[in-house]
Design a protein that fits this description.
Blueprint (H helix, E strand, L loop, with lengths): L36 E7 L9 E7 L14
Antiparallel strand pairs: 1-2
């Protein structure tokens, strides 16, 4: 496990007429993926054994390009 975020959503507050509660995915700003490869993001709910959703994704690392002299920050 690289990172974990805990969100509290009150699904009783869903506006009338919405077909289902909205799920907001957290932003993992401090996660650094330093190796290319296959990863998964699993969405779990406390009290449930199986994940609610599993999102596979692939990381492809691109080396940073050097800036020409005179244009460096």
């Amino acid at each position: 496990m690289l990172a974990q975020a805990i969100l509290m959503l009150d699904i009783r507050q869903v506006p009338f007429g919405m077909p289902a509660p909205t799920i907001i995915a957290p932003r993992f700003a401090n996660v650094q993926l330093e190796r290319a490869g296959a990863y998964t993001l699993s969405l779990t709910v406390d009290g449930q054994v199986e994940p609610l959703a599993i999102f596979p994704f692939t990381v492809i690392l691109v080396p940073a390009q050097a800036q020409p002299l005179g244009q460096q920050r």
